[in-house]
Amino acid sequence: MSLPAEFHEIAKRVNNWGRWGQEDEIGTLNLITDEVVKDAAATVRSGRRVALALPLQQDGIQTGMIPGRVNPLHTMVQINQELFGPGTVATSDDAVTMGLQAATHWDALTHVSHSGKIYNGRPAGTITPHTRARYSGIDKAEHIVSRGVLLDVARAKGLDRLPGDHAVTPEDLDEAAAFAGLTVKPGDIVLVRTGQLQVALAGDKHGYGYPSPGLSVRTPEWFHAHDVAAVANDTLTFEIFPPEIENLWLPVHALDLVEMGMLQGQNWNLENLSTACAEARRYAFLLSAMPEPFVGGTGTPVAPVAIL
Amino acid sequence: MSLPAEFHEIAKRVNNWGRWGQEDEIGTLNLITDEVVKDAAATVRSGRRVALALPLQQDGIQTGMIPGRVNPLHTMVQINQELFGPGTVATSDDAVTMGLQAATHWDALTHVSHSGKIYNGRPAGTITPHTRARYSGIDKAEHIVSRGVLLDVARAKGLDRLPGDHAVTPEDLDEAAAFAGLTVKPGDIVLVRTGQLQVALAGDKHGYGYPSPGLSVRTPEWFHAHDVAAVANDTLTFEIFPPEIENLWLPVHALDLVEMGMLQGQNWNLENLSTACAEARRYAFLLSAMPEPFVGGTGTPVAPVAIL
Amino acid sequence: MSLPAEFHEIAKRVNNWGRWGQEDEIGTLNLITDEVVKDAAATVRSGRRVALALPLQQDGIQTGMIPGRVNPLHTMVQINQELFGPGTVATSDDAVTMGLQAATHWDALTHVSHSGKIYNGRPAGTITPHTRARYSGIDKAEHIVSRGVLLDVARAKGLDRLPGDHAVTPEDLDEAAAFAGLTVKPGDIVLVRTGQLQVALAGDKHGYGYPSPGLSVRTPEWFHAHDVAAVANDTLTFEIFPPEIENLWLPVHALDLVEMGMLQGQNWNLENLSTACAEARRYAFLLSAMPEPFVGGTGTPVAPVAIL
Amino acid sequence: MSLPAEFHEIAKRVNNWGRWGQEDEIGTLNLITDEVVKDAAATVRSGRRVALALPLQQDGIQTGMIPGRVNPLHTMVQINQELFGPGTVATSDDAVTMGLQAATHWDALTHVSHSGKIYNGRPAGTITPHTRARYSGIDKAEHIVSRGVLLDVARAKGLDRLPGDHAVTPEDLDEAAAFAGLTVKPGDIVLVRTGQLQVALAGDKHGYGYPSPGLSVRTPEWFHAHDVAAVANDTLTFEIFPPEIENLWLPVHALDLVEMGMLQGQNWNLENLSTACAEARRYAFLLSAMPEPFVGGTGTPVAPVAIL
């Protein structure tokens, strides 16, 4: 089996290999210049902050269907331990085991490969158990702060959430941008809201993952045309699942991460942000979504915050 | 053994129990109002970002001396796995085990108790293995974004780093604020630079921890007087170690976390920030330092970013 | 709510506190003398070995219903790593995170407490996050080797497996002993086969746990009367689940572990052993079921072997 | 760099590829027949049991020098949790993260490869992050029970322990066998005592690992000639470290595991066994050393027991 011609044609159009040099490891994050961040800070009006991460706990959203992507096992190592003798100040410490992509996370560019390659044409074999990702590990995405824009596709359509078989198209993104009254600019981080996370929040973890609305294979070209820096949404798989084209699995991942070099975020909780933006009638804000710098990580938990 | 009278006198003066109501779980984070954040965003001039977290890796700063505070064991769960058959898009996933306070971190208010109490007078016994911290867990500190100010004590004194027996005093903080040409305001997050992290960065992990400069038992009153929202620095223990007063261990922890209800950060890398502030001749900036929302966590890794 | 009078009456009859002294931490394992082991070795006829542990893997028997009892997350730390340079001998290493009671395991005596006490009348509060079990941790059960006897209750009744609502009674145990043609002796380790593990082996993890046949609240007296050293079976909960007496949860655990001081084993795969014993027409053998010596552990994975 | 001619010559002489068929995954464990085990059981005289595993705890023997081989992080998941309501029977559960080769362990045959091959000529590339070891994983070594013989090299020489630069030779093994008054037979599991573990038990973890006595590159031929089933000893590296021949690292591993297909055990505590054998004046016993069946594991913790 190989990837169909349709995929390769899109791939050619969105490919960014070499655009920022042969040594580049961060792709479209290069579009976030100091100037972009300065302008992003200027979007802050009220100082209201909205946190976008799911709680980290054993009872998380993973169901066991993705091998090894385990919910956080968070345990106490010591509780009120009087380290220096009875009656002294006591400390409590904890530890965790978790899949780096188990909850609200960024995929590193190296999360996906196809045809033996990762972003910028490097061999996929440069990911090893010992080094993890030698190139484009999540630690290379040193700071992710920019203007965030919420494209609230569900709200723009007057829906609570999109149906499970809805592929979010470029036209949907245009519609949501028009609804928001904004223009997506180079260096923006785009948050696409489907409303699907409500299914998980209501307790149906299996229903959350499948079937699920998500991005269409046609959207990478839209992101490329707008020079978007990164994209996140409120679904498990990011792209529509099951996929639009039979037997073409994870094409959006391959186009965004490998061809374009654009980070993706998943399982972001955009519900409160949707309300806040609607109340403020503004859909642009300063977004800080710093990766935990796991050396060679192919993903990372992230606790994003929108500052309106 | 019990805590000395001197401790209890300071405790009375900085105590914030009940100040934000009996139900309060976040202490001085209450001082970060929308207005404070709005003003903080207005401090951004250049858009330059400086990341403050140490890399997360097995070869981290922990030496094994603090039981259970283990360096990140970061392993690949799958590498270039063609989940949907040969020739399809391939994915890589990873997982981690780590102490939540192993690297750059926030202590939750519940990290420390004394005399059987945690912040706001609740029983220390509300921390259990099953619930972890029922009150004031790190997940309650929902968003930590404010004006950050760097009090570069080492640079203000013309030193690369403070000697190992230097207790940073209120006078040192005043001196550094004067050097920075700023006034610390309510809701600020104060970053105190000693330069001690250089020892760890040079490879001497044991020397980093002991002996180490750090905050004096006299500083909590200074933070209280200035209504600071949170404090972080570039040392392992936060306060001077070994302590100033014989057999009075971790008094600053007890005063800051338990009495005042003020979060502390440790192992923050302030080296690049020191350079950036010196170059910009400005020591105030927008700081985003979002906790990972571990439910009931007594600490969290954090990837702070200063936006100048 | 408190435990009913019926429970306390049985408790009195099976209680072994003080029987081996106030300092004792291993309970009925004291019954395994050198003489018992010598005789056990003499039961070996053919040298045939039957392993009784389930495979350890992410796709294990845990369903997430017991908080924190996580299936093994087994990851490679390095693969064919040429540690000493290209062309040298290469090594592979792996690591695991797992609940100690996740698969085939022994409960330590401290796995259960009731009315604030563990075995031998010690306070339950001696189990702490820092020390784990100070007394009667699984590391104290230094060597578990004895005569094993299979009481194949299902086979004795001519059934593949017992129905889900079948409480195994003392009469059932007598029947199985008669079927086996043996007398249970002091120091024996008794393996009780219900056949229930077949449900898990067929892929129905939820059905394996509930409803499940298991030991009746009346069996501890039988074990006590026979001076059995330890008991294991092929179910998730060991005792019948849901329980025989409304709102009396885990009474067999409380009687065996706390009152009698007798170790319990769960999730033992007795299917091949059942066949081997039937073929050999002998139901007694040498059993080695050594605990991994987790210091202060309240349980341990175990890889038991029957030598026929 | 490639392995020297000397290595390849020995390799040819001890190679067992194909000896038990192309499908074989367990190598010299094939030598442990039912007959061998039956005879082994007959060696039991007193019923005395000696456990050979080190305690599993955070303060274990690993020093951080072998990446990812982490000491057990053993944490409580719940303590005296009244799962079914106040006053009910309470349970305690724990979990662990550890390197499978961190303490007393077996190396699986797949722990080592050289020249791109593992045992029986299979490609080293069959070990992957997803499958771990597809062939010869430790789960394939289903039951390891046989006659154990202690070759107490240190005691035979009248030493407490061998010096750090002592390579145990075939002549040393013959000497120890003569001292023990026994002949090593096909299917035996040979335990070689150097006394080196005393260094670790005395608290010097670094000194334990380096320099360390261990097996000479000449011993694999001796094991091959005697048709030994498996070998374990009381050192960190198994073979003498640093090695006898400059730049020839881990040759014994490569010969034993890859060429011969013979399992190796390390960090076995043979101190009590040495005493027990000397007291009994017998150095042969029944040994049970069952691997935990980690699917595709390249090693496993083991809790061996000698039954005298």
UniProtKB/TrEMBL annotation, chains A, B, C, D:
GO terms for molecular function: hydrolase activity. InterPro entries: KFase/CYL, KFase_sf. Gene3D superfamilies: Putative cyclase. Keywords: Hydrolase. SUPFAM superfamilies: Putative cyclase (SSF102198). It is an enzyme of class 3 (hydrolase). It holds the Pfam family Cyclase. Its EC number is 3.5.-.-. This is Cyclase family protein.
